[in-house]
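Example record used in the benchmark description.
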Amino acid sequence: MQRIYEPQDLIEAELLVGMLASEGVEAHLTGGHLLGAVGELPIGGLLGLLVVNEQAERARGLIAAYNAAQPLPGDEPESFPGVLLC
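Model output (structure tokens):
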């Protein structure tokens, strides 16, 4: 297995695990249980996404596409340009 990504927080980690699963890539989250010790403090390197070696490149590509995504034109409110409300 390879550690392919370090999510910023548990929310991003769970979102990416779900997104990868929807694309047929099984990802495992490491370090999630350690977050209780530090609360909401921003500590880098605790969380990590692991995938099997054969799916590492595909998973990295999917995460890169996710991080590069932009709102579709017309989906952002006029009062908050550049912000997508869900």
